[in-house]
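::Amino acid chain::
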Amino acid sequence: MDACAALAVAAFLVALALEIALGEGALALLARLLGVREQQRALPLACLWALGLLVHLAALFALRLAGLAWPAASALALAPGLARIGALRRRLAGWRPRPDPLLAAWLAVAAALGASLFVGGGGGGVATPWRNNWGDLAFHLGMIARFVHGPAGPPEYHLFAGETLSYPVFANLWTASAAWIDARPATLRALFAGQWLALWAAIYALLDGRRNPGLPWALLFGGGSLAALGANAGQRIDAGFAFSAFLPTIWVTQRAAALGACAALAALRCFHEGLAHPEDGEERRIGIGAAGLVLALSPLAHLHVCLVAGAWMALALLLRLPGSGRDLRRLVLCAAPALVWLPWLFTKAGLVAPMAGWVTGDAEALVGLARAAASARAWVRDAPLWLALAGFLWWRTRAHALFAPLLLLFLAGNAVRLAVWDWDQLKVFLGVAVAFLALWSRLPGRAPRLAQAACVLLALPGVVEARLALASAPRTLYTAADLALADAVRAHTPPDAVIACAPSHDTPAALAGRRLFAGYRGTLWSHGLDFEARLRRLEDLDGLARCRIAPCPTHLLWTDAERRFWGRERPGPGFEPTPLPQLYAIPPTSGSTRADERLYAIPPTSAEPSRSSPRQSSGRAASRPPARPQGSAFSTSTKKAIAAIQRKLITPPTKSSPISAQQQPRQKAPWTRPMRKAPDAPPRHCAAKKGTGARQWSRQACFHGVSWYAPAASRIAPPSAGLVAAHAVESSAARSRPHWAAVASRLKSVHAAA
């Protein structure tokens, strides 16, 4: 480890100590607002560190949004902690750590797992032994590179230029807060391992691992089905095993989940500490207020886990009303600042949707009771021990106000999907498991402790997965040549560049800290982005050189992957070579917008038609020498054309009845779904139409019993005699009049009868 890498690791370790001081300072400020004396605001050290970490990351995020560079933002975010070092030392003066063999074993296992998150590939590349981490690791490394090497300001998706980042970014921002000093893979491996170890050490303390030795292991290695033991959890999802092991599918792959679990456990620990004291006591006020403050800072740590933890606390207080009215108001007020983070969370399409049970695989096509039955069978098969333990502890403790919210949240997780795709709903049930284990850790009596023997079975699926992963050979994600190419691309492009490349998950362009025009399809889909039109534009290589709709790519990466994707050996015209052979520049075309601009088109209203001039043609039309036309079809004499009296076409007004606006105009939002059982009479349909219209309202209202199944009945009988034939053969008016009179009398009688 050289000097730069050592400096980055030292900055991370110093920040850990200052984050405890930041947590103590935030707690002191909250105590002053709630009227709590200093000696009554004692909280566990792990709660202080989790609170301080969230304060640090929130301040760092805000400073980067304001445009500050990394050195200034890092120093200002931690500066308040320096002022609280003295108060923290006085508070910890009498604290002495006690030896804990279980903690030593826990830290050893956590350190081994943290060191395996990603390892060095052959020749200095990046590899991972975790099969399910193959795509997610590339995504996280690309986001960290964008944070470190990109410009300050509102973050965007590094895989989809122009789209605001909608993702819990605190975990990767935490890594970038030290990686800006040195972002090489060796330093990133050390930071990943250090953060993993710090988080799981805090989780052990928050679950009181000394008193509850089985609960931390159940959280780390829990999840999964004993019916599919030994099979890769990620590969069994499509086979219907949705409740996969947490370790290979959540903790390793989704870096934000461990930070979110730590934040949720800190809030729940503060909440339980407060409930243990009398109502309206100072300890109760500071405990519930601190829980709300942690929730306020945690949405960008992990939305689902912290949302479930906050909902459980609110429901637990609601079931204790009216005695807990003040506690509920205090919790809501302290957690209200969480609304600030909504613009970076709820911008995904399809994030909230109803469902009739949580299933994956072929069962996703089921609806209604069939889907609910399939979900119930899957829960009984995959998580019987979790369900049995929850029921047993509820029966033994009779703590209805604490266990009933868990049941409600479990049922809500099976009824409302809070994810882009079905399996991702596992994060909601992970939040339920976190809340359950936090409650289990605070239950008194002998039965909850004896029940922890079942944690061996709870942790078995994750232990088997970890053994298989660590025993397998690491798979190389990026070679040393890929890393060198990423550094070269960064050196030859500005920070706001947009790079077009083959949409593969392991493209070296993602590590350059530059935005991609369009990245890997699977990642974009899992984040709920509208990417199909962008990918179609990417496939048209010649069109990229003439791009006029922002964002436009400014550079093109050209490696073997791009040659295979576009099926060419050379990019072609419109791409300028750069000193880097694998990189081409794309000069902006005339009339096109820059890559960092947005193009907003406002459609004209009916009252003000569009008067925009037509776009100028890109090139002059080919011409031929004039030639005399063949034949004598043209006049020998021509007159000079008369000048037009109008320079442009007249825009007719919409005041005349023949061109009046339709009652049901086009290009409007469609009406709701058709009713399954329509009424026999039309009054309900009339109320659903536009009440006032220029024409046809009464006629439409009288369409009863008419559809394309049953056409309208004819009201006029067809004539029995043919008028055309008689008139065509007779040219004398005198001879035709008798025939006309006879036919007219018959037609008149038919009309009168109708």
User: Anything to note?
Assistant: The two ends are 101 Å apart (CA to CA).
